[in-house]
Amino acid sequence: MIITFHHCGMETVFTAPVPASRDLKERRQSLRTRTPPLPVLTIGLVIITALLQFLLPASGFVLLALDLQTVSDQPWQLVTGHLVHSDVSHWFWDMLAFTIAGALAEMISKRFWFTALVAGLLAVNLLLISPLCTLTAYCGFSGVLNTFIFLVLAREILISHRSGEQRLWPWLLTAVCLMKLGAELWAGQALLTNTDWQSYPMAHLAGFVGACAAIPFALRPGTAAVASHV
After folding, report:
1. CA distance 140 to 117
2. Which residues contact 53 (CB under 8 A, 6 or more apart)?
3. DSSP conformational letter for 189
4. What is the rounded end-to-end Cα distance, in angstroms, of the chain?
5. Which of 54, 85, 113, 166 could form a disulfide with 106 if both were Cys (CB 3.0 to 4.6 A apart)?
6. What is the DSSP string of 86-129?
């Protein structure tokens, strides 16, 4: 606080000390504005999948994995089937990528994060229960993961376009992800993982379709996802 006195044409300036409590409050407020919030939704989901991976007995895995022949009698598997994985490697790579993509989505907004999750689940499940799918069972988060990845990239491209910054990296990363997806569809298996169960790249394609379908909801003008940068 600055106090100025005028006496006989002379100016005297005194600086009064700011109360310690006020100074501490301002520092805390500044720290909160600079530090991004902890991605609790992403961390929570990773912890849930870890507990299922390392503590779930074989009988529990059978109960939670998506059995496409009996799913009408066990509809919870349409959710739990995406949370269990065939082996540790399958879980590790899915969750490593999701920790990044999920945290970025959550930094945008909680609404954006849930939109990606719901869109991914719906898109992949619609594929799995459709005549296009020839599988009898399914597990893993990679299909939904692709929804998170492509939706975050779509948001970055939109922000870049609207701000006039013309950033190149969102386009390059999107191109790399699309080439990877195309190569997986051509090869009929995932490129970066080798799991106990046969990989199913069509689920990755479904995740991409889910991201495209979610764009009008997640990136609607006036929402936090469009108004602010990550």
Report:
1. 14
2. 84, 85, 88, 91
3. S
4. 35
5. 113
6. SSHHHHHHHHHHHHHHHHHHHHH-HHHHHHHHHHHHHHHHHHHT
**What length does the chain have?**
230
On the 0-12 / 13-18 / 19+ scale of CB atoms within 10 A, 58 is: exposed
pLDDT in tens, 104-149: 999 999 999 999 999 999 999 999 999 999 999 999 999 999 999 9
For residue 107, the tally of other CB atoms under 10 A from its CB is: 18
104 Cβ contact list (under 8 Å, min separation 6): 152, 230
Sign of the CA dihedral with 142 first, then 122, 183, and 169 last:
negative
What residues does each domain of the chain span? 40-227
Residues 6+ apart with CB under 8 A from 189: 198, 199, 201
pTM over 0.85: no
- At residue 53, φ and ψ (nearest 5 deg) are -70, -40
What's the DSSP call for residue 76?
T
- At residue 185, the pLDDT reads 95
Do residues 223 and 161 make contact, with C-beta atoms less than 8 angstroms apart? no
The CATH class, in words, for 40-227 is mainly alpha
Tokens of 132: 């296009």
Q: Beta-carbon neighbour count of residue 204 at 10 Å?
A: 25
Structure confidence at residue 31 (pLDDT):
47
